[in-house]
Amino acid sequence: MSEFTIMDLRRPPLGRRLRLGVVGGGRGGLVGQWHASGVRLSNHWEIVAGALSSRPDNAALSATDWIIPPERSYTDWAEMARVEAAREDGVEAVFVCTPNFTHHDISAAFLKAGIAVICDKPMTRTVEEAHSLAGIAAETGTPLFVTYPYMHHAMARQAAEMVATGAIGKIRQIRAEYLQDWATGPADPESSGQAWRQDPAKVGRTAAVADIGTHAFHALEYMSGLRADALRADFHTCGAPKGGLEDTAFISLKMQDDVPAHLHISQAAPGQHCGLRVQIWGDEGGIYWDQEHPELLRHAPLGQPERHLVRGQAGSMGNGASWLSHLPPGHSEALPDAWSNLYAEMGFALASHLIGTTLPEGLIQTWDVSEGVRGVVFSDRCADSHEAGGIWLQI
Amino acid sequence: MSEFTIMDLRRPPLGRRLRLGVVGGGRGGLVGQWHASGVRLSNHWEIVAGALSSRPDNAALSATDWIIPPERSYTDWAEMARVEAAREDGVEAVFVCTPNFTHHDISAAFLKAGIAVICDKPMTRTVEEAHSLAGIAAETGTPLFVTYPYMHHAMARQAAEMVATGAIGKIRQIRAEYLQDWATGPADPESSGQAWRQDPAKVGRTAAVADIGTHAFHALEYMSGLRADALRADFHTCGAPKGGLEDTAFISLKMQDDVPAHLHISQAAPGQHCGLRVQIWGDEGGIYWDQEHPELLRHAPLGQPERHLVRGQAGSMGNGASWLSHLPPGHSEALPDAWSNLYAEMGFALASHLIGTTLPEGLIQTWDVSEGVRGVVFSDRCADSHEAGGIWLQI
Amino acid sequence: MSEFTIMDLRRPPLGRRLRLGVVGGGRGGLVGQWHASGVRLSNHWEIVAGALSSRPDNAALSATDWIIPPERSYTDWAEMARVEAAREDGVEAVFVCTPNFTHHDISAAFLKAGIAVICDKPMTRTVEEAHSLAGIAAETGTPLFVTYPYMHHAMARQAAEMVATGAIGKIRQIRAEYLQDWATGPADPESSGQAWRQDPAKVGRTAAVADIGTHAFHALEYMSGLRADALRADFHTCGAPKGGLEDTAFISLKMQDDVPAHLHISQAAPGQHCGLRVQIWGDEGGIYWDQEHPELLRHAPLGQPERHLVRGQAGSMGNGASWLSHLPPGHSEALPDAWSNLYAEMGFALASHLIGTTLPEGLIQTWDVSEGVRGVVFSDRCADSHEAGGIWLQI
Amino acid sequence: MSEFTIMDLRRPPLGRRLRLGVVGGGRGGLVGQWHASGVRLSNHWEIVAGALSSRPDNAALSATDWIIPPERSYTDWAEMARVEAAREDGVEAVFVCTPNFTHHDISAAFLKAGIAVICDKPMTRTVEEAHSLAGIAAETGTPLFVTYPYMHHAMARQAAEMVATGAIGKIRQIRAEYLQDWATGPADPESSGQAWRQDPAKVGRTAAVADIGTHAFHALEYMSGLRADALRADFHTCGAPKGGLEDTAFISLKMQDDVPAHLHISQAAPGQHCGLRVQIWGDEGGIYWDQEHPELLRHAPLGQPERHLVRGQAGSMGNGASWLSHLPPGHSEALPDAWSNLYAEMGFALASHLIGTTLPEGLIQTWDVSEGVRGVVFSDRCADSHEAGGIWLQI
């Protein structure tokens, strides 16, 4: 039994941050930023080294973005594994956010150097690589993590808990979808991520299915608590041609206990952004979750009005989900993003003050002291007006 | 003219993080966590010192949560201001997230010590204090910031930009509301924040109006670009009694150019969580934004179908708002929260591995390597099934 | 005590339809069509006479639309009152859907002739006229009805019942709105209804307030079960000028028991169509109804997830509301409109068949027998495919 | 070429109503009421005869409900066909709303008697019957109609028109669903429709697929304008056992031009009422329609904000759809239902007045003249308050 409870996850158990390295994540990449947002917000980790790019100029530039000291900014991940493993204060883990086809070799190198690996999904390009990597992790005893972040929204976990504890009775059918539209037209040459995702030489046999189908499949199994036994797939290219690769798939699943499920995957569905949605029906109710509105869980007990559960609301959160909910209901999980924007602006303003430069054009100083005064005056005039019987007053 | 453009806000301009202190934020407080989320996610700041609580035991415990070294954990903010100002590596700024009635004295002390202050809203309890603090900031030349984070959502700024550039024509009427329900019943004795917010001795003349009305008033002025000239207010106590303080207000406003506006504030409206909503109508269109769905901006040009602008969508973002948008559309601003939960769990798991303990009960290892293998197998079987003409295959 | 129960309202109690006349409703008018839809759908009435227009050509043309025999199509409502009152089979009631300023004289004439009157709202132009008409009804003993149809949606009544029986506890605050946008620009010369609605000579002292404010005020009182004791109003012209008349009003209300309420009325709010919405908060919950989504009632018991009640769902309908719900949940109240369109098309097709003409261009024969065959074939092929193990079959 | 335009469909072209009979529709049945609502609201038809039930007592009782004279109320549909065909004023058409397995024989009898038939879907139980009936219609030259009412909502037709005229480019994929929950548990013994719908002896090889799958299939073909070439079906029983019949089906379709489509049908999906939804994606946009919100059409042009088209809005309606739209936008298609409820209440009140009885308990007289006066007083007091500068006034 652990000495910790689940609520202890809110604080680093060692009283310090773990030392983390990055492989990939140079300027132009997106996925590295998403990992970084979790790293920083969690306060469990400190990024101290990185092989951000194999191009020296991009690696150097990116290292200043990430505030990684030059001596720990590498252009060769193999060298990084070797050097960091040898340092007293070397990284304890790396996260790997390079294109999928490179995951196996990079991860293997770090695992063999005794450095834990956090690998973006899909874990590898082929099944052989996947088993190989799992084998290396087992042999070395070094932790290997694979990241499916969507299921770490509080209400996705809440859904799983409710399903597991009978809120919808026995599961009878499931439908999931992950729909995007970025691959409807030809690949955007400005995008670092679109070209390789549609290149058979790089992604192997599947494009959309590996890229987002794996998320939907994971979500479907996670939220239902059921494993798929068999599948049947039809692939289509509904957007611009992709060298024979699919951008769309209709997949039938037979889950445990003969529960039927259907999965619709597309990256060529105009108007769809990141439409990961899971719907599960049992014999006593239904439940519905949509990644684009992650704070909301719709629960329809059979014969009763549908209930809209909002993250954080008293009485609506299970034990396992509660630690994931950091904010009161209505203060959305998106709030840290707004605060981050504000702190970036204030940081910039203070830095400008310290070095004596002016602020960029177009920046509005919503934090200005005059706004602060105005708020206090507003409250005060409201009280004056009310006390005088609801009369008009100048502000 | 600045040497920077607005997109440079994404990176710390000094090539290092600014040193930040915290006043308030001890265990049990909420607002400090919100500031911290912005601090960490922005990557512009490093928290290195704090007067987290006046109670020594809570201060010490909280310092380990924030990973602040014991020698820079204070119980007396006045001492903190003195000591940090004297240190070579002292904090360059503090954020103040104590109850409102203490803002003036704390902020004044740090400003006088030459340390920049980031003060939560409302800036002070009384108008006199507000003017006093603004005066101190002016005299000392030390930056003073007041935080209204909601307007730092990308689509709130987008709304302001669209209104300013004529998307709805000339503004003709405005309605805003900020509705919550936590003050419907008596104050929750478990909550550190509810009691003082309803205590006339602590908050002064207004409760809900100062607490959330100032947010709505700021949003209304910010998004419309119009200043209020006059107001008329009616206060009510719709929830449990609060020593004569209001929990609800209906406020009429006369904006510049005689534009009428109405503001509804309540903390006793059951079913409402953080319902900050602003609606602006001009002679050529209307626009609507809701803090609980911050990614969406509804824009109705007169006589045309309503358009649903989603953050990050190509062609829908103005210049000033674009730097605030870090993720593709559909990958909601809430995603960092999910990644943070995942990184906390993986950090915890790695720490447990390092010290040889087990994981807390109830923690599901979604990151397990077997899940990674499963995803790759899933993609592969899909390709097999498709190539065989859409046949059922075991997984 | 009545010999009838409320469910008996579904059938005409006399075993026949009541004879009904129409005043107003000539081609070009809208309101007459709305009355007619209720008349026909209810099956309680038969329209047999009308003074549809004072212009003989329009009266004659309109009479064929309404299938009124020429001898009972009048151009003078006074003559109609006289003649119909004298007929053995004369109308037992008329509905009056002329512009508001004519309501008093027309209604008075029919009441005095002993014919019941169904008068569209607002009942009259002035308070004096209203009292005069009420007096005539009382003196003559002839029934006078005034129509506020929105409150006859099943879920509006359901809301009133739930509020009355304590679903939200004691009422503490209310907000209502009725927002449209047709009066944002100048009056459309094509519209028969826009010009007189904005002409002070015709509507008197108020335009939007009389036209739609009365609906919102009625809804607010009806759904809350509380009467307003006092009001305070600010008028504005937010759209094109209207000879001094308001198109927008912000109205504060003091309801019984000192419950505060606020009403926002506008016909110049771009993007708003018929946004009649009522929100009521008590000390134990809140309730919300929107005329544009009349099938849905949102109910938030304090501290519990919001419940979405859908018309007709088992267990969600009160006694008084249940007779108003004619269709299973999900088969929306709008379904009769679709059926009506279908029956009009089939009627037209059969008539064309009988007189040997062709169908109008653009009409798609969804009812064609080939579609019927196709549906049966579809079902059959599905069964074939399933029985063969889920194989592809031609249709 | 027709002498009529499509807008002429709003009026009966013969200047009279067509004489219509009913087969089925006795007390307890639902579908007959839906047909009747269209019959009445369209004003193209008059119901004059019926074989409402084979049980004499129910037939007689039901005839009074429908206001059918006793001499034209039959208990035997074969007799009705014979007698009505012989009458000078006999019915020109009948609608058949009996259980599906009886459709063939009843329809055949009336067709052979020279009476047009309006047959509810599915047209027949078997493919053989369908072809037989189509053959009889062809031989006799008597019109035979099959009813799919959902596609007669204005915005369903609008969707079809927009797709046909290129609003989403070339169609690339389609998904449709029709989900209900009434068959989750065992058949409700109170319901006249549930038992036979799940009885293999009555419905044949398919239950849900024939009952609602045919609707979804029709909608999918109608809105896309594409025909299905092949299908593959998997049947499941997700709710209570039904003698081997399916209540759920997952159906893959190959449409013309190799466009893939998927159809999900279920009557055992808790929380779903009448969820008929169609989503079509082309290479330039997507379009989405939901029967439960029939007034709204969502259209996402690729790379632009999603547009919410509302029925009746200027500039948003195509030619073929415009005649189907009878009400301004926001005045929902559901409004006739509310007006019908109101007219039923007023009809009841007038009838009670005529025969001197009291109203049923629980009936609220919203139409009372005092409400009419109150509305006029309200408007007047608003004007008084405004003119006095926005002061409080008693009502």
Automatic annotation (TrEMBL), chains A, B, C, D:
InterPro entries: Gfo/Idh/MocA-like_OxRdtase_N (IPR000683), Gfo/Idh/MocA_oxidrdct_glycsds (IPR050463), GFO_IDH_MocA-like_dom (IPR055170), NAD(P)-bd_dom_sf (IPR036291). GO terms for molecular function: nucleotide binding; oxidoreductase activity. Keywords: Oxidoreductase. Residues 157-287 form the GFO/IDH/MocA-like oxidoreductase domain. Residues 19-148 form the Gfo/Idh/MocA-like oxidoreductase N-terminal domain. This is Gfo/Idh/MocA family oxidoreductase. It comes from Palleronia caenipelagi. The lineage of its organism: Bacteria, Pseudomonadati, Pseudomonadota, Alphaproteobacteria, Rhodobacterales.
